[in-house]
Write a structure and sequence with these properties.
The complex is a heterodimer of chains A (380) and B (357). Chain A is of the alpha+beta class and 380 residues long. Chain A is built from 16 helices and eight strands. Chain B has two domains: 83 residues, no CATH class; 269 residues, no CATH class. A two-stranded antiparallel ribbon of chain B has the order 1-2. The chains are: A alpha+beta (380), B mainly alpha (357).
Chain lengths: 380, 357
């Protein structure tokens, strides 16, 4: 009665299952995938033989849509790509347009942009820790990390008017000036973060079961990380020093003192530790800037209708997940001719099969969790 | 002192006078009603307790809408589950699918029999009480395997297989730690084990080996009841809901209730073996102190100890991540089982030499 259910995929029909193998679908609706990722996993007992990610469930054709939106409008759509680093996505697009316009961004706007980006990075990493702990079966860290994330969201809401899809960065600067309470609230958040982060370390970092589940699991070597095009914390945990903020500084990161967090182990625990250290570095960056926000304009004067000269423009930023590249081809019109995004999640996901093959299905959750996949970023 | 035994004897005499040869049947019916009521109440209380404990650990409030301070939340949940449609998958083995939750439930109910709730309140003081508990509790794995197999679902199948490996393995460790107490008490009968702790609980009297066996017992029963960090059978991030993925409505509720009743029972057994069950805290030769302790009702002692252990197991669940399946089996076969065996030897030496207090 226990009939082999055949999955209707071209791959499955090409390769018949061997004796004792089993195909299970993780997703598109599954508690571990944080979205509509669909993994077709071939198992032998509990051991993973092959993983095939199936994409496209949340494809909204953002790149095509952008071709009919003006240079001011298309930025708003990118908040919906990697919704956990909406600010940084917007920043990448705004910077690309500014590059085309050869526009100088006022000092004040640059500083605001960096503070917002780093707050976003902390919020994203906080959410990720909670979600990954949940993948490993611990529910409590989720609520601890959300306490901090909520504080950041409140700060964002006050200044930007939104909590998730902020749409705050515009070509030439930021949309509004900072809320009068912004500085005080960010300072109180920094104090809160420093006092509460130790709880998280007690609960997660030093937990023996957590260490057993992550140390040596899902190892990605430096060579593989480079050849799969991994970026962000995933690559840095494997020893690749590819932090865009250091390698190709933008928006004034070159003036700041911060450390590129690199580990060499390349396992899930290294990816965890890298993100924890990155949060400390983000706090460090915010501390350097929060007392020294320069006075002046928050937005450069731009024309109502932006036209980019004919040509190709590319900018890259470091989002919470890795390198986001924006590539605009302009024909000189008010709308882009073609837009292409290089999203970090897509490349990081491609390494999953390599990392998880041969391990147990429980390890897959630890590996996939530490890749920090945001599915709308992969599908766009 | 007030004794339940007197009431029981008087009831028995009265029943014999009025019902004659049907006395035993009537008594069985009374006990059955008592057991089912206890079952329902315990289930509701424990589910609410778990949610409140979880909320407290997770800086939340927890259920607070239905009834005063959310006390009726689980009643509302039960009503909801009762009214839900119980779906049976199309290709499932319908007979086994429907039977499985009842087997799990039945095992939980049977396990209530030898538990001594208070002085003189025990459904069945069987002379092989501890053996009975070990034997019956291993039947529940059949129910889980049945559920996993008959669902015709791969997640359920994987969950059931994990659960089978896990329960069968950890039963050994639980058995060895229980045997330590049996060796010290010299009896398998629950009432004898409690009586042996008249002048102090085994956890205090039995030196370090009993402490070790208690730790092993708690780990093993947490695994046996499929609780986090050993909840691989229903690891939701890997297997959605494990062996009960396809269950809905009241059949699901039966699995859910049985899980909580099992927690209660293993904690009650732990409290009985290591903390003297309903026996108040007695210290040998401190007559005055012992007398004062006797004034606290024995049922309060029993419930207090049991719920303290339940809270401990709940604390585990909301603190630890889940183990991986091979780590789970490594822990049992490479660490707990050898330690348990050696520990049993130590306890036997202590018992033979009479070194315990």
């Amino acid at each position: 009665m226990y009939s082999e259910t055949t999955i209707v995929t071209p791959e499955a029909s090409q390769q018949p299952l061997l004796e004792g193998q089993l195909v299970i679908n993780v997703g598109p609706q599954h508690p571990a995938t944080h979205g509509v990722l669909h993994l077709v996993i071939t198992l032998e007992g509990e051991t993973i033989i092959k993983i095939e990610p199936h994409l496209g469930y949340i494809h909204r054709s953002i790149e095509k849509m952008s071709e009919s939106l003006t240079y001011r409008q298309f930025i708003y759509v990118t908040s919906r790509m990697d919704y956990l680093s909406a600010h940084i996505n917007n920043l990448a697009c705004a910077m690309c347009v500014e590059k085309g316009m050869q526009l100088e961004v006022p000092e004040r706007a640059q500083v605001i942009r960096i503070i917002m980006s780093e707050l976003t990075r902390i919020a994203s990493h906080e959410l990720w820790i909670g979600a990954m702990a949940m993948d490993l079966g611990a529910f409590t860290p989720f609520f601890y990390t959300f306490r901090e994330r909520e504080t950041i969201n409140d700060i964002m809401e006050q200044t930007c008017g939104a909590r998730l899809t902020m749409n705050y960065m515009v070509p030439g600067g930021v949309m509004y000036d900072l809320h009068p309470e912004f500085v005080a609230r960010v300072k109180s958040f920094v104090a809160q973060f420093k006092s509460k982060v130790s709880e998280l370390e007690d609960l997660v970092t030093d937990n023996i079961i957590f260490r057993n589940r992550t140390v040596g699991v899902g190892v990605l070597s430096k060579e593989d990380a480079i050849s799969y095009g991994c970026t962000g914390p995933v690559a840095r945990a494997s020893g690749v020093d590819g932090d865009i903020r250091k390698r190709f500084p933008y928006s004034g990161y070159e003036k700041l003192e911060f450390e590129q967090c690199i580990d060499t182990a390349g396992d899930s625990f290294a990816r965890y530790i890298v993100r924890i250290r990155e949060m400390y570095q983000s706090i460090h960056i915010i501390e350097q800037l929060i007392d020294a926000i320069p006075e002046g304009d928050f937005q450069a004067k731009t024309k109502a209708v932006i036209k980019l000269p004919k040509g190709e423009f590319y900018t890259r930023v470091e989002t919470a997940r890795g390198e986001l590249g924006v590539y605009i081809v302009s024909e000189g019109a008010t709308t882009p001719y073609r837009i292409k995004y290089r999203s970090p999640g897509f490349s990081n996901l491609s390494a999953l099969n390599h990392m998880a093959k041969g391990s147990k299905i429980g390890d897959l959750m630890a590996t996939m969790g530490t890749l920090d996949l945001v599915i709308p970023d992969i599908d766009r | 002192m007030f004794s339940f035994q007197q009431i029981a004897q008087q009831t028995h005499a009265w029943l014999q006078q009025h019902t004659g040869s049907f006395t035993v049947l009537v008594e069985c019916a009374i006990v059955a009603v008592f057991a089912i009521t206890l079952f329902a109440v315990l289930g509701l209380v424990l589910v609410l307790l778990e949610r409140k404990v979880a909320a407290h650990i997770q800086i939340r409030v927890g259920p607070n809408r239905v009834g005063p301070a959310g006390l009726l939340q689980t009643v509302a949940d039960t009503l909801k589950l009762l009214m839900k449609e119980g779906l049976v998958p199309n290709l499932a083995d319908k007979f086994l699918f429907n039977l499985a939750p009842f087997i799990v439930m039945m095992v939980a109910m049977l396990l209530l029999a030898p538990v001594a709730f208070a002085r003189g309140i025990q459904i069945w003081d069987i002379n092989i009480g501890v053996l009975y508990i070990s034997a019956i509790s291993s039947i529940s794995v059949i129910g889980i395997l049945m559920a996993g197999w008959s669902s015709n679902n791969k997640y359920a199948m994987l969950g059931a297989m994990r659960s089978g490996a896990q329960i069968v393995s950890y039963e050994l460790s639980a058995g060895f730690s229980v045997l330590c107490i049996v060796v010290l008490s010299g009896s398998l009968r629950i009432s004898d084990i409690i009586a042996a702790q008249e002048n102090g609980w085994w956890i205090f009297k039995g030196h370090i080996p009993v402490l070790i066996s208690f730790v092993i017992f708690i780990i093993a029963v947490t695994a046996e009841t499929n609780r986090a960090p050993f909840d691989l059978a229903e690891a939701e991030s890997e297997l959605t809901a494990g062996f009960h993925t396809e269950y809905s409505g009241m059949r699901f509720a039966l699995f859910f209730l049985a899980e909580y009743i099992n927690i209660f029972i293993v904690c009650a057994i732990g409290a009985t073996l290591f903390f003297g069950g309903w026996m108040p805290l007695h210290i040998a030769h401190w007559e005055g102190f012992n007398h004062v302790m006797d004034y606290i009702p024995s049922s309060v002692w029993f419930m207090g100890k049991t719920f303290a252990l339940i809270l401990l197991i709940m604390w585990f669940r909301w603190t630890f991540p889940r183990l991986r399946v091979d780590q789970l089996l490594t822990l049992e076969w490479k660490y707990l089982l050898p330690i348990g065996l050696f520990n049993l030897l130590l306890v036997a030496i202590i018992a033979i030499m009479g070194w315990h207090f």
